[in-house]
């Protein structure tokens, strides 16, 4: 039976039935229903759980973005919450990016923007009440940090997203929040007495220059943004470090944050170019996700163990991994901590509590549960031994990073279930950057993103703006405190956007448009947002000239590390057979002997 005949039959049946809606089933990405009046209505899949009906239309199935298969578009109007259904794009016509269409302004907004062109950004910027990322779901924004516990219902059918700093560099005052629920807000004193947050807050008034600068700046922000006073006071990025950072020779956390974000971006750019030149075999950038890296890691303590995927250069850099160590690993030379056994970007450091990266998606998730269980058992043993208050300082969590693509693996589901049932202090941080290589989030899940899966496993969850470094820091700080206080896992979903290709082996123009990439790069870039914040509030004389000076310094340091790593010798061949057994077994010894004989036979080929 054809689709139209099925629809007509359902409509006819619905007219004769006493119930309001008859479920028809999935129809090309939406749920088609027949109302008691007989008209056909479609439950749009774009709102996921929020039940928005579109009369007499079937929402098209989301398709991979390519010129050969133009998708139907849905544009969100700013003037109201109703969606405008656009007609299908004729076959052969230039593809229109559905993600961009959902974000286009209506004619009124465009006219207003044109009239206001040239005026001061702060006076024209309107704090958004909703955000849209690469999926079609519209997410309400809240400026109040809010952990949703397992017994709560998902608010409004769509999980809210926590944000402190808007795109123009200002902190939200809460007046235009799209979500309000005071009963579920983390209180100002929540977990603070436990002293479990990341970087501690120092007095600073009688300290050195760096402490005085940050203390004065923090006081200024509290006065300017009273609604965010508690978060500002507790935010470790706005507080001086207890000790001098070795890589910046200062205690100024905010200065270090800016420098590290610039350093990582320069390293990504130069290492990617080196691969294109044939000097590196492979590389993978994290452009656009730096706020997640540094915001999250700065909220952790040194005893916390990090398990990353393959796009987590930032956490390792924040912990002290040097540019030279990054370059040595990518060149697999004799100084590589992994002895050349891993492909480039598979970093690891025992000294920095950072587990070696493995390529297969999701494998680190159940491993993180094991790490967290060990940390919990060690803390309990220390407490039983009578270490007293010192045992509190030794408590740690496992921090596990992964992308939204990993949530489709069995390791994700088994890991979360183990963490919840074993009551492990682990933070699962999903970087939802819109794409798993070429797979869009529209094809990755039918749920309200990733964080909505938390209640099903009996754990708390937070959705955070992954382009807001201050919000990410606050979310991870609270999640860490919650995990340790309750011996329980927390799932965080950081909404962001992957600005670069998946890797140097990928060409993302085959499945997404350049316009889409440019849109998110201009609208939601985390580094750009931080720079606006610093310049807007005239922090420590931060200017474009000073930022360019830092960029040139970091560029020179990256190039220097690259040249040195390139000149270093490769690891000895025998390292292929070491570090597996304490004493090499006969089978492995035989393989080593055979390889040695082969290389000796062809010395011109194997110039070792």
Automatic annotation (TrEMBL):
EC number: 1.2.4.4
SUPFAM superfamilies to which the protein is assigned, alphabetical: Thiamin diphosphate-binding fold (THDP-binding)
Superkingdom of this protein's organism: Eukaryota
Entry protein name: 2-oxoisovalerate dehydrogenase subunit alpha
PANTHER family: 2-OXOISOVALERATE DEHYDROGENASE SUBUNIT ALPHA, MITOCHONDRIAL
Region (Disordered): 61-97
EC class (word): oxidoreductase
Keyword set, alphabetical order: Oxidoreductase, Thiamine pyrophosphate
Catalytic activity: N(6)-[(R)-lipoyl]-L-lysyl-[protein] + 3-methyl-2-oxobutanoate + H(+) = N(6)-[(R)-S(8)-2-methylpropanoyldihydrolipoyl]-L-lysyl-[protein] + CO2
Coiled coil: none
Cofactor: thiamine diphosphate
General function of this protein: The branched-chain alpha-keto dehydrogenase complex catalyzes the overall conversion of alpha-keto acids to acyl-CoA and CO(2). It contains multiple copies of three enzymatic components: branched-chain alpha-keto acid decarboxylase (E1), lipoamide acyltransferase (E2) and lipoamide dehydrogenase (E3).
GO biological-process terms attached to the record: branched-chain amino acid catabolic process
Entry GO MF terms: branched-chain 2-oxo acid dehydrogenase activity
Similarity-based family: Belongs to the BCKDHA family.
UniProt KW Oxidoreductase keyword: yes
Domain Dehydrogenase E1 component: 260-573
Pfam family, one: E1_dh
